[in-house]
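Q: what does this look like with zinc ion bound?
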Amino acid sequence: MFSKGSLHIATVAGIPVKLHWTFALLVGLVTYTSFSSGYGWLGSLYFGLFILTLFFCVVLHELGHALAARYYNVPTQDIILSPIGGVARLKHLPEKAFHELIIAIAGPMVNVIIAFVLFGVLWFKQQSPLEISGDGFEAFMSFYNFMPLIFFMNIFLVAFNMIPAFPMDGGRVLRALLAMRLGKLKATLIATRIGQLLAIGFVGLGIYMGHLVLPFIGVFIFLVAGSEYKSVRFQESIRGRRVLDIYRDQYSLLFEYAPVRQAIDRMNRSMERDFLVTNQLGHVSGVLREEAIKEAIRQNDTDAVIAGYKSQNYEAIDVSYPLEYIIQLFQKKDYSILPVYQNGEFVGVIDRHSFGSIM
Ligand SMILES: [Zn+2]
């Protein structure tokens, strides 16, 4: 149930919906606010119901992104809910700018639809959405206010998400529009800088207003925008490149019946961290990972033969393979080092540190 700090609560349309552990803070805040306002458990219940409905709208918003992404063959890994909102984690970015535009807009569109439906129901009930009785927290204590409040929260979700602060939805829309003219890299750079500027504004405004959540969101946007730009820059830099461009023809081969000590020796004298292991015939028979070497050091077992520490987690790759594919392969299969072949002949290695050199 718990994986990497989040709790799997449901699966909708094949997409896991998870609660981030910090969500517990929200439950605490709801209870605290209710009690400090003098409404006790009943207040918690009312306020909790409101927050729950609000997050239900957030899940629908994220499903809007996820289903639009699915339409363009981009799978969604999961939807994670945290106190500051939800995020649909797409497995990769859509290639076409127009697809990103539609995926980014699909989330807020869901809230527009919810707001329209609520407006229709309120109109039918002859209740004005502007009619909210009570001040501050008191407003949440009346069931009469429930629908108008949810209506306003959906309008707020649309307005807030459409602020062009990349990586928020509005920022993604901006990036997609810019990318149609300027290309993805330049568009991302401009959208990132605008996003970071607005993020600094959020922090400033939050501190000025004595608001806790806004500076937090600001810092979050600032950091995520920066890392997403780096990832796009990385993607662009490997586009069209192949194993041939980055494989190493300088490497050590370790005999499987040599002691682990030999690997430590090589580590100290070179930049090599992971090694290919060979058998008596000189053929590659496994890999010795940095983690395994460290384990041998911890166990005081460096005189043991490498065969006892080697792993079979590797496969042969060809110089013609595209780097995009190889990077995915390393991530998916947790490879450390792979032998590289050209026309069936062993010519060198590629390891998990090889990609850093591209930057
Ligand atoms: Zn969104």
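The mean pLDDT is 86. The longest strand covers residues 6-12.
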